[in-house]
């Protein structure tokens, strides 16, 4: 075979625009100059990537810049500000003064719009970066070796391997398949999976859905396996042609963001009502002469009531949350998960790989006549067999020989040595079997020559077993052409056996032998080993997939293999943290109940008295009965993926907020149903990832607990700055309303000054509060309901209380400042004092609110240096507004002398003192309650 060189490629490019479904596999391979066994050589890949480009879909256009910008200005709060600006402009123009407030408000509206726009585009970029992190990998054959590459690196001519759960990364022509079924809903809308066939040739005009010898990008392998020649990549693929369908990280508003929008609406409506009341009431009392004054007051109140800075702070906090989580290996796919993770009450976790290391090492073998211990570590095929029953060389015995042969033949994994280290490609369970066989001197290379595979009945979590059919090599059975090898859950394989291998003979299996085998199985499982049963059967023909049940019967029992999958070290601790945090961990596994129980007990997931429920038992329960059980079961064993769905639903019916892990195709419904669906980053199928809210980049249970902690921190911080911002808003409104009631002339704060406070002096510290690290007790309290109102647990009353304290302090100062200013000549100075005090008091508030329970002196000021920096920076800005002439002119402030400034600082400090005093009182009561 010749491969095109660089110069060939420009003149003699492989033609990818062919009717591939009309070509035989040989024609297709020829056309793309590829090799079904070796794939493409390295130099070709780079050449072709250069020519065809990366296998990526161009991003959809999404919303245009103008649309994003427009959305910013249609936000109800900004609309109201624009309205306020217009009214204020009209008032100023009538007085023949320059409409400074109006211009400033407009400027701030525009600035806010631009900031919002920048934030949204940044958020989109961040999401795109996250998407890259979760971009799928593909198994290919290149340079004669199987390997894994990023999907975007595929080129036409690559040989791609498919297995159940994979989302296909490029269009291609089938070269081989075993029972391959593909769901093409993404492309054809047809939910039913399509059976694929390699050797069918089709007419050129066959519709897309009928082209059974082709596979398409974006579709999902539901069952079986296949080998595919990549024919089209990137935008050339069918899906690329129709539309750039992005499997983007979804960017939907979180429940909190929705509630914030609602809050905005309520506040705006409230503001409008307030304006109407002040104007109407004032006119009724004092007549139309006061109309303009009243209008000015009410406009200020309207601006004061709206927390202009809040939406931006919420968005930034959620973004920071996702970043913190990714640093701890949890990749958020759907933004709501960030804030709701903190509410999780139950974590339902798979065992293999999540709670355990997924590095299997076979430790024991039980054949009908031998009990063997196997030594060795990792996947290196180096170790000893030691017979615990008979002293002579057991490996040379037929029973053990056959068992090890089956370990190799009934196996899809690949054992390889890379840079001196033995690793596996594929299922670790199967990898361990290859290692075991290697220790006995049995390798695929030699066995395949004698007994090549001609058919298979694939593994699924429902069947819990798999079978392959190989050519017979005479020495197995004289009469049969083929041997069917079956391995899987010991109970299920044993059930299908009618005879047993004893030395060289095959004899009918007795009831006593069956019980003995089950006893051995229980004993190994009880020690936490994962046990597989092995059997075989000579067959005359290659059974079709539909005949699986019949084919996998009348088997000859060969033996049991027990492997250790050590629990992950960090999980025990993580389970403990869960319990302290009021979260109940639950193990859901396909493995044997005794294996599951042993590991669950070791990890602390199962406590004495907790029930283990098997899939079989679960099947017999009605949904209502299951709902009654779920609170007492901490281990579910031998379950199928559909049971997972029932378990989540039952827990949810009990009012639980459930996080659930999954990796297989069939786990997708349970992941969707769970409040937080969690997919595995390493072993998870693309389909499960697609259905998830979060991906564990390291497949580790401890990561779920870490993400939960971050979720709690995010939610705490959001509540913290809502308290901070809205408390101040209430204070401002009350102060503005109080001025005319107290008979002080004029409005104390102009709309411009209020905007300054809400956006800058409130906004910056609020952003800093969003960075607050976890409170020490964050994982020592029960989870909060995700359905609780934001105002629950004292937040509403805090806001009102602090708002009133704010107002009282400022009003006392206002009274003093008013008369002081009257006496000093520059009457308007009292307004600057009110403005300054309100701003500075918020600085004290920001420092004190960092913790609900700990006094500020008890906290390290540098554990959140942002708050300190924001407070210093904002205070300096505020002083500039008073002491820099141009700013003074713009903001309508006046210079304060030393005494006045000191009074402002003094009154502001009282705010800090008040909040600290509240904490002291709280401690006093808490201590009393404890006594
Ligand atoms: P978890 O759900 O915690 O990941 P699991 O990995 O044991 O647990 P499955 O992969 O569904 O769950 O396996 C269920 C059972 O199927 C296993 O206990 C084992 O008996 C059998 N089994 C697993 N892998 C294979 C395989 N490659 N070939 C044959 N049987 C297997």
Key structural traits:
ten-stranded mixed beta sheet, P_typ_ATPase, HAD-like_sf, single chain, transmembrane helix, 931 residues, disordered N terminus, Calcium-transporting ATPase, cytoplasmic transduction domain A, 17% strand, eight-stranded mixed beta sheet, Calcium-transporting ATPase, transmembrane domain, alpha+beta, binds adenosine-5'-triphosphate
- Which descriptor suits the 3D outline? elongated
- Structural class, from helix and strand content? alpha+beta
CATH topology of the largest domain: Calcium-transporting ATPase, transmembrane domain
* CA radius of gyration: 35 Å
DSSP, total strands: 27
Protein name: Magnesium-transporting ATPase
Organism: Aphanothece hegewaldii CCALA 016
Family: Belongs to the cation transport ATPase (P-type) (TC 3.A.3) family. Type IIA subfamily.
Subcellular location: Cell membrane
Description:
With 931 residues, this protein is of the alpha+beta class. It folds into five domains: 20-58 and 133-248, Calcium-transporting ATPase, cytoplasmic transduction domain A (Distorted Sandwich), CATH 2.70.150.10; 64-123; 254-312 and 720-930, Calcium-transporting ATPase, transmembrane domain (Up-down Bundle), CATH 1.20.1110; 324-354 and 569-707, 3-Layer(aba) Sandwich (Rossmann fold), CATH 3.40.50.1000; 360-564, 3-Layer(aba) Sandwich (Calcium-transporting ATPase, cytoplasmic domain N). The chain is 48% helix and 17% strand. The protein has 33 helices and 27 strands. The strands form four sheets. Strands 10, 11, 12, 15, 16, 17, 18, 19, 20 and 21 form a ten-stranded mixed β-sheet that branches. It has an eight-stranded mixed β-sheet with strand order 8-27-26-25-9-22-24-23, sandwiched between helices. Strands 1, 2, 3, 4, 5, 6 and 7 form a seven-stranded antiparallel β-sheet that branches. Strand 1 (137-142) and strand 2 form a beta hairpin. Helix 9 (255-286) runs antiparallel to helix 11 and helix 13 (398-409) packs antiparallel against helix 14 (428-439). The radius of gyration is 35 Å and the shape is elongated. The termini are far apart. The model is unreliable at 1-11 and 243-251 (pLDDT under 50). Adenosine-5'-triphosphate binds next to helix 14, strand 16, strand 17 and strand 20. Adenosine-5'-triphosphate is lined by residues 350-352, 427, 429-430, 459, 461, 464-466, 487-489, 530, 532, 589-591. Belongs to the cation transport ATPase (P-type) (TC 3.A.3) family. Type IIA subfamily. Keywords: ATP-binding, Cell membrane, Magnesium, Membrane, Metal-binding, Nucleotide-binding, Translocase, Transmembrane, Transmembrane helix. Residues 19-93 form the Cation-transporting P-type ATPase N-terminal domain.
């Amino acid at each position: 075979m010749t491969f095109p060189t660089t110069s060939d490629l420009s003149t003699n490019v492989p033609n990818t625009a062919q009717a591939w479904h009309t070509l035989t596999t040989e024609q297709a391979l020829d056309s793309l100059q590829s090799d079904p066994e070796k794939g493409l050589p390295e130099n070709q890949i780079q050449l072709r990537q250069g020519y065809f480009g990366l296998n990526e879909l161009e991003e959809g256009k999404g919303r245009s810049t103008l649309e994003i910008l427009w959305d910013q200005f249609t936000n109800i709060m900004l609309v109201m500000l624009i309205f306020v600006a217009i009214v204020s402009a009209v008032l100023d123009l009538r007085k023949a003064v320059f409409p400074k407030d109006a211009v400033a408000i407009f400027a701030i509206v525009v600035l806010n719009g631009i900031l919002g726009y920048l934030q949204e585009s940044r958020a989109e970029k961040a999401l795109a970066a996250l998407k890259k992190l979760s971009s799928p990998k593909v198994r290919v054959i290149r340079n004669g070796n199987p390997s894994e590459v990023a999907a975007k690196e595929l080129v036409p001519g690559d040989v791609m391997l498919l297995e159940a759960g994979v989302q296909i990364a490029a269009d291609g022509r089938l070269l081989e398949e075993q029972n391959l079924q593909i769901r093409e809903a993404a492309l054809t809308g047809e939910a039913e999976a399509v059976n694929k066939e390699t050797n069918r040739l089709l007419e050129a005009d066959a519709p897309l859905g009928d082209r059974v010898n082709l596979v398409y990008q974006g579709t999902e392998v539901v069952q079986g396996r296949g080998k595919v020649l990549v024919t089209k990549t990137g935008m050339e693929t069918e899906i690329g042609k129709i539309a750039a369908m992005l499997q983007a990280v979804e960017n939907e508003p979180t429940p909190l963001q929705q509630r914030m929008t609602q809050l905005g609406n309520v506040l705006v409506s409230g503001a409008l009502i307030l304006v109407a009341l002040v104007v109407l009431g004032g006119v009724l009392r004092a007549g139309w002469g006061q109309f303009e004054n009243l209008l000015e007051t009410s406009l200020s109140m309207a601006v004061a009531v709206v927390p202009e800075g809040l939406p931006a702070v919420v968005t930034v906090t959620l973004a920071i949350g996702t970043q913190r989580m990714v640093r701890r290996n949890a990749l958020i796919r759907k933004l709501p998960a960030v804030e709701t993770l903190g509410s999780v009450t139950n974590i339902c976790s798979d065992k293999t790989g999540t709670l355990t290391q997924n590095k299997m090492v076979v430790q024991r073998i039980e054949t009908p006549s031998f009990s063997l211990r196997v030594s060795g570590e990792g996947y290196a095929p180096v170790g000893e067999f030691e017979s615990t029953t008979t002293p002579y060389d057991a490996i040379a015995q037929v029973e053990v020989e056959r068992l090890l042969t089956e370990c190799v033949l009934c196996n899809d994994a690949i054992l390889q040595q890379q840079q001196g280290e033995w690793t596996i490609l594929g299922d670790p369970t199967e990898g361990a079997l290859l290692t075991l066989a290697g220790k006995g001197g049995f390798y695929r290379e030699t066995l395949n020559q004698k007994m090549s595979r001609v058919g298979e009945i694939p593994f699924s979590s429902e069947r819990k077993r798999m079978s392959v059919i190989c050519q017979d090599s005479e020495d197995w059975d004289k009469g049969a052409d083929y041997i069917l090898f079956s391995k899987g859950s010991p109970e299920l394989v044993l059930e299908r056996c009618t005879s047993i291998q004893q030395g060289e003979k095959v004899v009918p299996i007795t009831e006593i032998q069956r019980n003995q085998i089950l006893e051995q199985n229980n004993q190994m499982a009880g020690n936490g080993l994962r046990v597989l049963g092995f059997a075989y059967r000579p067959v005359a023909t290659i059974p079709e997939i539909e005949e699986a049940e019949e084919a996998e019967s009348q088997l000859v029992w060969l033996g049991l293999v027990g492997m250790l999958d050590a629990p992950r070290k960090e999980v025990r601790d993580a389970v403990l943290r869960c319990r302290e945090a009021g979260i109940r961990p639950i193990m859901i596994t396909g493995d044997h109940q005794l294996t599951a129980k042993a590991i669950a007990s070791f990890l602390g997931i199962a406590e004495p008295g907790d029930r283990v429920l098997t899939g079989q038992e679960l099947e017999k329960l009605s949904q209502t009965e299951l709902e009654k059980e779920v609170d007492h079961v901490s281990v579910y064993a031998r379950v199928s993926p559909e049971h997972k769905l029932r378990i989540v639903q039952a827990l949810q019916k009990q009012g639980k907020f459930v996080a659930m892990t999954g990796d297989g195709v069939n786990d997708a419904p349970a992941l969707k149903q769970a409040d937080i669906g969690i997919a595995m980053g390493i072993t998870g199928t693309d389909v499960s990832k697609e259905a998830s809210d979060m991906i564990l980049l390291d497949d580790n249970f401890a990561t779920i607990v870490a993400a939960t902690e971050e979720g709690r921190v995010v939610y705490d911080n959001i509540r913290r700055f809502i308290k901070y911002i809205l408390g101040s808003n209430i204070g401002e409104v009350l102060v503005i309303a109080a001025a005319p009631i107290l008979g002080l002339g004029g409005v104390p704060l102009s709309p411009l000054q209020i905007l300054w406070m809400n956006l800058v002096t409130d906004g910056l510290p609020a952003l800093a509060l969003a960075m607050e690290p976890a409170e020490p007790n964050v994982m020592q309290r029960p989870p909060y309901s995700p359905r609780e109102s934001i105002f629950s647990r004292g937040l509403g009353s805090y806001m009102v209380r602090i708002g009133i304290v704010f107002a009282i302090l400022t009003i006392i100062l206002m009274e003093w400042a008013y008369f002081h200013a009257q006496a000093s000549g520059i009457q308007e100075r009292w307004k600057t004092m009110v403005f300054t005090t309100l701003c500075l008091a918020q600085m004290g508030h920001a420092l004190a609110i960092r913790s609900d329970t700990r006094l500020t002196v008890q906290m390290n000021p540098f554990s959140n240096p942002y708050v300190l920096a924001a407070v210093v920076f904002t205070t300096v800005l505020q002083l500039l507004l008073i002491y820099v002439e141009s700013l003074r002119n713009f903001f309508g402030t006046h210079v304060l002398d030393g005494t006045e400034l000191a009074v402002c600082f003094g009154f502001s400090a009282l705010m800090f003192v008040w909040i600290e005093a509240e904490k002291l009182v709280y401690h006093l009561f808490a201590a009393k309650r404890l006594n």
